[in-house]
Structures are given as structure tokens and as C-alpha cells.
Design a protein that fits this description.
This protein is of the alpha+beta class. It has 17 helices and 32 strands. The chain has a domain of about 240 residues: Beta-galactosidase, Chain A, domain 5, CATH 2.70.98.
């Protein structure tokens, strides 16, 4: 049998071209994501071929909108800086697991290059610390600049720093702005330098090297000179206090060299990615498989209770959730298979946020909720955690918070809870922004909440939520064949179901970031209704054909659509569509994605197809298709391994004609979570032409 292994990921994959991913080092779900910020940047702060502003410690990989963070920046300089010193040229940059390297030359004024020699830069990270190593070449006068005022789409509204001694700087900065909300947030730091400075300027004023000094105010800028050609800087970061930043340095970096820490970061990633192995298929696909897992683990930030500044946390917390509306499409379902404890902790963390802050968030970052782009994504996560019996999930606490979220009057439905018209009218009328898409997503959330309520014996509440969810049927337009926008009196609104009504489609009056036909295919729990309304399985499949020809890959809300052929009894059509679309839309290299990575939405979609496992949000259902590899191995836990093997025809051309799970014949093109969670061997027999495998016993949500 072919031996499966994990390939090295491409850490520059999708940094440009709309993907907005990070090339810089971090650990899985680490607080510190240390990466370059360019003068002309993407939402991640990075962009190939642009001038470098500095290297900062907080980022979000793959997000859209206006971006976030880019805080606590450091840049080495090759001569004494002045007011014109703003940008630096990259001679080259490269990255591997746990590290980023580049060479800089200093850029002066409006593009006049100062040939003062090259600066070698090496970066690495622990969970809460950024690690810098700079080497100045011949002809350089070593200086660094520390910028507390910059943010990718934010600005500093205050800050302070002071020297504890000539090689330790502590401080904080307060920021406001970026996608999601305008609520201020603070970042605390402790910087330890491998040698003392010889000259220091804070806010333009020179400070004696032996004294403790302070600088404060927006845009705090510090410049320091060094008398040796190599300098290491270790930066502890905390959202709570300087003391916690110091503790991060002590716990995560003490008594270890830069090289040892960099190797530890690489080892952490290699251990994580070694759980997902492949053999056969193309080398490009094998690298993409590892890369997508890496991208998935870069999403979100995990915080221990003592690292949470917003309330006294009882357990693991999370931030940088931008946003569940994206990740709930596939990422959370996939992680529930390979990281069940982590997904349970996320669900419990959302419950705890609601207990302290009053509402379940959809986007949660820097201590406040961002806009709710659809319905209540947490309801989908809670229902799925219950169905998959994720270890440690507190279903009762989740239900209590869902009751408040879905039933209580909201002071601002754009950010919290739901619009009251949904309960009053049974739909959101056109007076509500994104009215039709909200109605669709409210209906889905109500049904997921009802499932959790039934599980807990809360029958009356379950019936009420199911009744309200069923109201979505009244918004179906026979002529448009989708759920259509309506006026308060129930009349239909004129619209085009194939395209948004305005260029800034996120502000569309009827459908958020999509079209009527996008949202008509979003209700996994009502697929039999959709098939009936389109005239039966053949007509439904014909509609899917037209839909994917006209507007597929608009946004992450429709990435799942190729899998819907399964529900029409045509699993081979899912395989055909997924092969074509993934190869067409996902390419190797820096422009590898056509859209924002969006909290694992794209990476989990590609991974699912590559494994032949289509996840279904809010459910315990997995749809089966042909993987992209001859052999796949997933370590689900220390005890359980799932092996997926293809025999017969080429995986890039064949179709499943028979299958077995742990030696027993499998005649359906789907499985339940309980059948996979303990691992085993799933074998697909492939042929060059499809048969009738999987066409009889259809999947049920």
C-alpha cells in the first residue's frame, strides 16, 4: 500500500488576489500573529511587492472588509531616521513553518533609495510572544523604530511606554477602528532587547539611556540606536496587563535561544499537520492539502482564562472570530471531526460571552460584537455539538442563552439578537436591511434551536421556534423560484433573483452578499421542499447546473452547492462539479483564492472535497464523493485513525461504484458522525463511468 505523509505547506498561498492570508509566523490559534505590514496593504496588512512599514504582532488572516489590528510595530533601520523615514523595500522574503525571513533596504522620502546596505530579518512566534532577529550588513548604522500608533484600519487614541532598564521596554496602546465595531481595545507589551540601546528618542525627544522615561499620546513613536550589528527582540503581548505580557515572556521564552524557539514553533506545526496525511494524486494537491489545514488552524485566537480582559472567564475563550457567519458553513463542522474538544470549548465560550455581555455574538473581536451578517450562527453550532455529542459541551447553558438571543427584544438588531419583525410578521419586510436573506437565516437558526430544545425536553419552546421557522415557506416566490423580499403588507418587492441590486452587495437591500438564488439553496433542512418546488430531482439538478453556470462562487454562502446533487440522487454529479470548480478556482501560489479566506470557509471547503467528505452545518451528516488522493489518513485522536482509500480508476477521473466501511458494504453516499468518529477504514471502488451507487438511499438532514 502507498505510504501517506504530510507535505510542506505554502505559507505564501493566497496572500494576494483577494485571499488576504498571512505569511508571518504564529502558532495554531495563537494570540501573536507576527507579520509584515505594507504601506499599500491587503486586509491582513501584507501585499506582495509593496514597501514595508513594519512588522507587527496582531493580525487576522484571510478576512475581508476593512481589516483589523496591525498593532505594536517594529522595524529595523540602516541609518538615523527622520520624519521622512516611512517605508522600506523588500529585497526578498520567504517563509516556512514557524518562521519568516526577508531582507530590507531603507526607503527614503518619496522613493529615493538610500544604499546603506541590507538588513536581514528573521521572525518567529510563540502563542503570546513575537520573536525578532535583525542583522545589519556592512555600511549600516543600526536603529529601530517602534510604532504604537499604527493600525491596519484603526488608529491609536492613547498609549504610554517606559524603560524598566536600557534593554527592557514596557507599555500599552489603546486603539479604535477596523471592521466590526468602534469599541476601543488595549494591547500591552513587554519588549526585551538582547543589548542595551545607546541613544533613544521618544516622540522626538532624546532620552538618557540610564533613566526610566515615559512617552504618551496617540501615535507614540520610539527610535533607538544600537552599537552592534545583530539584535534580538522578544515581545510579550497581552490584552490584560503589562504583568501578563511579562509573564508570557517568562513562561514561553525563558532560557531558550531564538533558534530553539523557532524550531519549537516549526515542530508544533509539523506535529499538528502530521495528523492529516495523503498519498497519490498530484503534488500540487498534496501541498494544497497541508496548506489548507494550516490556513484553517490560523483562524481565530484561543485565550486561557487569565488572558481574557473583558470578564472573569471560567474556561477557554476565543477572540478574532471574524466571523461565525463564515466559519459555520464548513470549518466548524470539519473541526468537530478532528478537534471535537476544541469545538465544544468554542460553543461553551460563546455561551459564556452571552452570559457576561448579554448576547451571543456572530462576530466577536477585541471585546465587542461586530455586525450580524445573517442569523444566529451559534444556534447551528449548538445543534451540531448536541448531535455529534461533542465532549464537554454544556447544552443546557447554550439553550438558556439561545432563548434570550432569539426571543428577547434587541436594542440594536444589526449587532445583537434579531429584528422583531421576524416574530411579528413571520418575515423581515423590506424596511429591514438585507430583509430576505435575514428571513432565510432566521428560519434556519430557529430550526436548529428547536432541535436543541427538543433534546432537552423543552417541547413548547421547540414547537414555537419550529412554527416560526415554517413561516419562511410563505416567502417562497413561485415565479422567481426563491425566497423573495416582501413589503410589510406581504406584497412582493420587485427584484432580480440572479444578481444584487447594488454594486456594494454587502449593502444590498434584500440579500446580504448574495442573490435570491444563493439564499434559496441555503436551507439544508428544507432540501426536499426545494426539490419539489423546482419540479422534482431532474429539474432540481438542471437548476443547479444553470445556477453554477451563472453565479456560483459568488461568496462562501454557496460553496456547498455542488454537494446538493446528492439529495437529487446524483452523487456522481457532485463529484464532477467539485473537481471542475476546485481546480478552476483554487490555484497554487500567492493569488490562489478568488475571495477572502474568511475564517476557514474556503480552506474547509477544499479540504472536504479533497477528502471526499462534504460536511453539512448543524447536522451530523457527511456526504461522500471521490477524494483527490489514493490514500488519506486522519488521526482523529490518539486512539482513532480514519483511513480513506480509493481503488480502481484514477481519482481525478473515476466515480464511486461501490464502497465499504470497516469491511461492511456501504451502498449510500453519506455517513453519520457516529460512524466516522471512532475511525476505521473507508474504501471506495472507482470506475471510469458512474453506476447507480448512492442513488437509492438518499441523505436526510
Amino acid at each position: 500500500m502507498t505510504s501517506a505523509s504530510s507535505a510542506d505547506p505554502d505559507l505564501f498561498f493566497a496572500v494576494d488576489g483577494g485571499g488576504n492570508c498571512l505569511p508571518g509566523p504564529c502558532l495554531p490559534q495563537g494570540l501573536v500573529k507576527l507579520s509584515p505590514d505594507m504601506v499599500n496593504h491587503n486586509t491582513s496588512g501584507y501585499a506582495s511587492g509593496e514597501l514595508v512599514r513594519h512588522f507587527s504582532h496582531l493580525h487576522i488572516s484571510g478576512m475581508g472588509g476593512a481589516g483589523r489590528f496591525g498593532n505594536i510595530g517594529i522595524i529595523p533601520m540602516s541609518q538615523k531616521p527622520d520624519a521622512r523615514t516611512q517605508a522600506f523595500s523588500l529585497v526578498r522574503d520567504e517563509a516556512e513553518l514557524g518562521s519568516y525571513r526577508c531582507q530590507l533596504t531603507q526607503e527614503q522620502g518619496f522613493g529615493e533609495l538610500a544604499n546603506q546596505g541590507l538588513i536581514d530579518v528573521e521572525l518567529s512566534a510563540t502563542h503570546r510572544c513575537g520573536l525578532h532577529r535583525y542583522h545589519w550588513g556592512e555600511g549600516c548604522d543600526p536603529w529601530i523604530r517602534i510604532d504604537l500608533g499604527f493600525g491596519i484600519s484603526a488608529h491609536s487614541i492613547g498609549g504610554a511606554c517606559r524603560w524598566l532598564n536600557s534593554s527592557t521596554l514596557v507599555g500599552h496602546a489603546v486603539y479604535r477602528g477596523g471592521w466590526g465595531h468602534e469599541y476601543p481595545y488595549s494591547v500591552f507589551f513587554c519588549m526585551q532587547f538582547s543589548q542595551p540601546y545607546t541613544a533613544c528618542f521618544i516622540e522626538g525627544q532624546q532620552q538618557p539611556p540610564s533613566e526610566t522615561q515615559q512617552g504618551q499620546g496617540a501615535g507614540l513613536l520610539l527610535r533607538a540606536q544600537w552599537d552592534q550589528s545583530e539584535l534580538e527582540i522578544r515581545v510579550g503581548i497581552s490584552l490584560v496587563s503589562i504583568a501578563e505580557a511579562e509573564r508570557a515572556l517568562e513562561e514561553e521564552t525563558a532560557d531558550l535561544s531564538f533558534d530553539q524557539l523557532r524550531e519549537a514553533a516549526a515542530a508544533c506545526w509539523k506535529q499538528r499537520l502530521s495528523r492529516f496525511r495523503s498519498a497519490g494524486g498530484s503534488e500540487e494537491h498534496r501541498q494544497c492539502f497541508s496548506t489548507m489545514w494550516h490556513r484553517l488552524y490560523c483562524t481565530g485566537t484561543r485565550l486561557d482564562p487569565q488572558d481574557v480582559p473583558w470578564f472573569a472567564a471560567k474556561g477557554t475563550q476565543f477572540t478574532d472570530l471574524v466571523c461565525l457567519w463564515d466559519s459555520v458553513r464548513a470549518a466548524n463542522s470539519l473541526l468537530a471531526l478532528v478537534e471535537p474538544e476544541l469545538q465544544a470549548k468554542l460553543c461553551n465560550a460563546l455561551t459564556e460571552i452571552s452570559e457576561h455581555m448579554g448576547w451571543l455574538p456572530d462576530a466577536w473581536l477585541a471585546g465587542a460584537s461586530g455586525q450580524i451578517q445573517g442569523g444566529t450562527s451559534a444556534a447551528t453550532l449548538f445543534a451540531e455539538a448536541m448531535k455529534k455529542e461533542l465532549p464537554g459541551f454544556d447544552a443546557r447553558a447554550a439553550f438558556v442563552q439561545l432563548q434570550h438571543q432569539l426571543n428577547a427584544p434587541s436594542p440594536d438588531p444589526f449587532l445583537l439578537g434579531i429584528y422583531p419583525q421576524w416574530r411579528e410578521l413571520g418575515f423581515c419586510p423590506d424596511e429591514v436591511k438585507n430583509c430576505a436573506s435575514r428571513s432565510v437565516e432566521y428560519a434556519f437558526a430557529d430550526n436548529r434551536a428547536a432541535e436543541l430544545a427538543e433534546h432537552l425536553g423543552e417541547g413548547e419552546q421547540a414547537r414555537n421556534w419550529r412554527r416560526d421557522s415554517d413561516n419562511i415557506i410563505e416567502s417562497w416566490s413561485e415565479s422567481a423560484t426563491c425566497f423573495a423580499p416582501r413589503k410589510r403588507n406581504g406584497d412582493w418587492v420587485d427584484f432580480n433573483p440572479w444578481k444584487p441590486q447594488c454594486r456594494d452587495f454587502w449593502n444590498d437591500p434584500h440579500y446580504y452578499e448574495g442573490t435570491g438564488h444563493d439564499y434559496a439553496l441555503l436551507l439544508w433542512d428544507r432540501i426536499p421542499f426545494l426539490i419539489e418546488k423546482h419540479g422534482g430531482p431532474e429539474a432540481f439538478a438542471a437548476h443547479l447546473d444553470e445556477y453554477m453556470e451563472r453565479c456560483y462562487l459568488w461568496k462562501e454562502i454557496n460553496l456547498h452547492v455542488p454537494w446538493l446533487y446528492h439529495f437529487a440522487g446524483m452523487p456522481h454529479r457532485s463529484t464532477q462539479a467539485l473537481r471542475s470548480l476546485t481546480d478552476q478556482e483554487v490555484k497554487a501560489g500567492r493569488r490562489g483564492l478568488p475571495d477572502n479566506e474568511d475564517m476557514g470557509a474556503w480552506s474547509s471547503w477544499w479540504i472536504g472535497h479533497a477528502m471526499g467528505l462534504g460536511v453539512v452545518p448543524g447536522s451530523d451528516l457527511y456526504l461522500l464523493s471521490v477524494p483527490r488522493f489514493d490514500v488519506l489518513e486522519l488521526d482523529l485522536s490518539l486512539e482513532h485513525r480514519l483511513s480513506i482509500r480509493c481503488e480502481g480508476a484514477d481519482v481525478n477521473q473515476g466515480f464511486i461504484v461501490s464502497a465499504s466501511l470497516n469491511g461492511a458494504a456501504l451502498n449510500r453516499a453519506w455517513l453519520r458522525h457516529a460512524e466516522l468518529v471512532e475511525g476505521g477504514e473507508l474504501i471506495f471502488q472507482l470506475a471510469e463511468t458512474p453506476g447507480d451507487w448512492g442513488t437509492q438511499e438518499l441523505p436526510v438532514y
